[in-house]
Structure formats: structure tokens, C-alpha cells
UniProtKB/TrEMBL annotation:
Keyword Nucleotide-binding: yes
Coiled coil: none
Protein name: Pyruvate kinase
Pyruvate kinase C-terminal domain span: 376-493
Domain of life (superkingdom): Bacteria
Pathways involved: Carbohydrate degradation; glycolysis; pyruvate from D-glyceraldehyde 3-phosphate: step 5/5
Species in which this protein is naturally found: Nitrosospira multiformis
Protein EC: 2.7.1.40
Amino acid sequence: MIPHSWQRTKIVCTLGPATDSPGVIEQLIEYGMDVARVNASHGDHADHARRIERVRNAAHALGQPVAILIDLPGPKFRIGDLPDDFRKLTEGAIVRLTAEGGIAEEGGGAEEYNTLLPVRDPELLQALRAGESVFLADGSIELRVRTTTAACVQCEVIIGGTVRSGSGINVPESILSELVPTDDDRRHLAFAVAQEIEWVGVSFVQSAGDLARVRACLPSGPGPGAQPLLMAKIEKRQALADLDAIVEASDGVMVARGDLGVETDLAEIPVVQKRIIAAANAHGRPVVTATQMLESMVEREHPTRAEATDVANAVLDGTDAVMLSAETAIGQFPIAAVRFLARVLTATEKGYSLRMAHDRMRATDMPSSPDQPGNALSFAACQLAARLSARAIIVPAHTMAAALAIARFRPQAPLIVVASSMRLYRSLALVRGVSPLLSAAVFGTGTRTGTGPQACLVQAGEWLVSQGLAELGDQVVLVSASSSACERADTLRTIRLSLDGSTG
């Protein structure tokens, strides 16, 4: 049996002040972090570059593939910088929203000063109307607009809480909107390209056209996979109306439950989550479930039972990865949060992975069109692995498509992808059930030592044995290509091999 320490579902951790202490990033990787997330809405490029370098160095030292995901801010309104970086708002209190920089001009005593909340986008002040609800910090705080002027909006606190610098502002009734990408997004995109980031999260996507405009901002690369992959963050009600087109136009999807829970009815979020994950699974796109997975661990060392259940349900829904936000970025217990998350994932997969794999193989519709034989062959490879109780499926790959063609069927056996580039090696760290290995020459013809499918088999076999996932003589399934054009699914062939090198 495959040891339960091998984890199929991936873990995304947000970087921040809490991960800056010496040794924290190394421990995050050791305990299960597969993707390090950088939220471009907070901090500056110097901070981000420093953290990215630390992740790269730690991952290299530990021999682990870790992808970097940068979230673009998108057209979102935010609170400006606050004294002490936070402010507590009490139910029934009156606060005033004003343009950032206007606090100093207001003057007044300390009590009056503490009623002011700076807003980074002055145009929001012009758009708000009396009676509208304003939500802060992923909807945890609610304000009601009482009066408005050109320079200030007076609000009553309906639901109190702590608001932090850079917290998001949602006004579901407002029609004020801006196209994706914003000018700020373009600046962060240039930084992401310069840093050779694997994934870029596109915030507030409302249509497939938003993703097309973001792609148009990326420079042409020298070859496949040179550009960062785009992850569509589903957090607007309008996106649900165009969900299939958005998923198809993306490289990956995020269920961004924070803003989604404000922009839509909170009671609908569980069903909406299942719908988004199902759409991503159907299109063969990796999907991340995010926001408040272990929210209580921002301040407490132990999570709630409801949070543990929430994480498990995301796995059962079919998510590729689960994400920690404030828990690791600013929380008091980032290492404990990752360790507990890994425990829940392992326990859930141990109890249900066999059933899930069987149900997926039985329920997935087989593509019948002749231009999609690769999906049919990938399905057959998963079936063969299941019938043989193979220890692994091994795939030499040049592109994400070659790996995702098999990963979409959620095989029970580990999917070992021998990647032909460092970018692909890291990018695959996000995909459920995939263990990436790096190879300098994946699709050699055998004329050079150490190339070709047989070399990939040997490399993957050594890794499986070293991880305790297989023994010499165990059977595996090798999916190889007859040419370097791995995206040509009609050239794929599935053969059965054993780790001692014999064929069957």
C-alpha cells in the first residue's frame, strides 16, 4: 500500500511578516508547502523579491519543487495605511471614509482622528450613496452609509471588528468598475515576469476577455511555458454566469471565497464552491480552494472542528490545493497551521481516496471527438494502473498539458511527471496527485546517454524507492511519446514496465 504520508492534495501558503523569521519558510516546505503565494496588494516589490528568493533557496536546498503564485490586486478598493496597522471598529460607532492623505488635513483631537478610515481610491467616495452597505475585511465588518460629501462619507458600524491596512472594501450595490488588468496589475505583471514566477492570480475576473487582456500584457517567450500561467480567481457573481468560458481560457482556477462571500449570498457559497471545482475538474484545470480554511489559527494554536471539516470537504469536492492566507502571512502560528492542514489532508485521503478515484474513473465522460484522443489514452492509462495496482504512473513531459491530461482523472497511483524545464517542474507542484521530477533531457531518442523514456523510468523508479512508495520489481505504467511534440496526443502510447527494467 502507498504510505499515507504521501499527500495528493497540495498546500498553498501566503507569505508575509509571519514567514520572515529565520527558518520559517524552510519549515513550511518541510511540513508540506507546495506553493508560496505573494499577495501584491500588500508590501512592495523589494519585500516580494526578498521573500521569493528565500523560497527559491530553501526549496533548492531541500530538493523540493515549490511554485510561486503572485496575486494581482485587480480593480478592488482598499483601506489605506492605518496607525499601528489596524483599527478596531465598534458596533454603533460612526466612522468617516476619506481619501488617503486626508487624515492629516482633517486635524482634530485623538477621538475624532480615530473615527477616520483612509481609502486608497478617492473615486469610491464619489460613488457611494446613503443607505448602501459597505463591507470590509472579506465581509467580516459591515458599515452603512449615512451621509456623503465630496471629501468624506459618514458611516455607521453595523457589524464591528478589526480592520487592517490594505483590507478590501466591497460595495455589492455599486456599479463602479474597472477593466482587468488595471495599471497597477500591469506593473505587478512586469515584476512577475522578471522574477520568473510560475503562476499569476488574476483577481476579479468577470469574463474570458479579462484573461485575454492579461495575456496580451505578457511578453512573448522563447518557447512553451515561458510565460507565467494564469489562475482565474472566481470572486464576482458575474463570473459565475461565464464560468465555463473563464475556466477554459485559464490555466487554473481559484475559489476565492473571501470576496465571493460578499459579492454573492453567503448561504450559497458551499454550493458555488462545488460548482466551480466541478467545472475546473471537467476542463482539466487545477483548482485552489481559498480563504479562511483555518482562520481561527491566526490567533489560536488549534483550529475548530468546523474548519477541519471545511478542509476535508474541499478535498472531497475535488480541489487540487487548499490555501492558507492570514494564517501564514500574519498569523501567530504559521507552522502549526501548515502541520494541521497536512494532517487533515492525509486523514481525508486515507479514508476516501480509493473511493474517489473509482468514482472519478466511472463518472468522467470520455471525449468522443477524434481530435481528443489524448484524453482517451490518458483515461486508459489510469484504468490500466488501477487494474494492475501499479505503484505509479510515469509521464515524461514538456508542457502542463501532458501532465494535466492524466491528472484530470485523479488516478489513485502517484503521477510522477519528469519535467523538461525548471519552470514546468515548479508549476506542477500545484497539481493534485503529481510528484514532479526535473530532467535535463526528457524526450531524447536514446542516442545520448541518460535520455529517453527508459531513463525517465529509471529516474522515477529511484525516486519511488527512496520515498518508500515502491520496491524493485513493482509494476508501474509509463506513458511516453513517440516524438518530442508531447502535446500531440495521437503519438502517446501506454506501456507497462516494472522497476527492475523488464517490460510486460
